[in-house]
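From the pipeline queue, job 12 of 40. The input is one protein chain; the requested action is below.

Action: predict structure.
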Amino acid sequence: MAAPAEYRIFAVGGIPEIHAGDDIAALIDAALLTQDTPLEVGDVLCVTQKILSKAEGRVIALDTVTPGAMAREWADKWEKDPRAVELVLRECRRIVRMDRGIIIAETHHGWICANAGVDASNIGGGDAVALLPIDSSASAAALRRGLVERGQPDIPVIVTDTFGRPWREGLTNVAIGVSGMNPLVSYEGQVDTEGYELRVTVMALADELAAATEPVMNKVDRVPVAVVRGLSVPLDDAHDHSALIRSPEADMFR
């Protein structure tokens, strides 16, 4: 993919508070038209997982959760809510590490992240937490279809979430769901300007775009949607994020 001289990112404002059953495609379509920024062929739409989790009923009231012994023990030790800890444990495929009040877990999706993605922020208040979508790539595919049905062009959709990074301070947005694009771009076999043939250079394009959109979304401003314009990312019928997950055989830190 030839790199253009520049690309731009803009936020999509006017998305209301989301509730279970809301039509996210309809709300995004209306917001795009209201601010006179309809989608264009070649755009990429980035959407935070939180609004999809809300619409899909993945916000759990803590008073409906009965914590088990392990959750109660961990919560007592680190002054956590045992009900939230119980949900973290349920969302785990395996626990990578438990230390200093943080549970690093592999989710059922294959992501390794803090607290299995269970999050209490930006959920409209109340004693509740949000879980990750059951299948973020399926959510991206459904959103993509919904926008096309409303007359928007068929473009890639990335579902984003905020992850920490080993060995580096600070958080960054990453892609946890992808539809309509290959999340990776390989430069293997290409030659750089010095004539060196690249052998293992594979860029996580979906993660790069997810991270690039966060500054215009801003965690405290409740702007959950952004558009990347000018890259002309090739459309791909795939809707699968698994290519972003390093296999156990290649994972040197497992």
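Job complete. The chain has six helices and twelve strands.
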